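Hey, I'm writing a tutorial for new members on how sequence and structure tokens pair up, and I'd like a real worked example in the thread rather than a made-up one. If someone can provide the structure for the chain below, I'll link this post from the tutorial.
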Amino acid sequence: MLTNEKAVAEVRPWLLGLLPEQESRSLEERLITDSGLYEEVFIVEEELIDDYIAGRLSADERTAFESYFMNSAERQEQFRIANALRVYIADAKKTESSTEVRRRWPFAAMSLAAAAVVIAALVWLQPGRIGKSYSVVLTPGGVTRDSGAVPQQITIPPDVDTLELDLKLTRNDFQKYRATLLNSVGGTIQTTDNLTGPTLRFSVRTQQTPPGDYQLKVDGVNPNGTLESADSYRFSIKN
């Protein structure tokens, strides 16, 4: 369990997108230099997933978990793995009678232990797993260098492997959004669906974003599934 209650009180609503903007920015700045606080984030993430699966979140927290926290592809994978283990254990308990459990206990215990090891290995080895992330807030701007405006400059610390881009929407007119990251020549790097406003969280591996110019195009998803242009964000990754 976490011992830093103040950190929990800040990190939990921040992960759910419920922390006021000014407090969120202050927390994000501290995460860059405070390794202890950074470790707290991973613990709170795991607790949130467990609480969601067990039905311990409040109605507001559950809504925020589904619409904001799960916007990260890495957290979705973490959630699927945690839920798979929980379901596996629950099914094992239901399908074996008490006599069979006593008779087959050593084998059953080994099976569950093996499953836990395999799932833990998947969490550790799966490519999308977050190691250390770096958060940046982007504001809309579809202009180019030719228009005289310079894209937002981002310098990623050397030990970071995931870039978290928080996209501020001009207007939150759609229930769902799609964000597409493009390189300087218009090639698609990554597309993320089912994002929700008013701030969209777009996660991308830093190995996909070497130094250069980028554009994030955001489309709103209409009820009939068609896309409508919403906002555009331009930024540059610097060494």
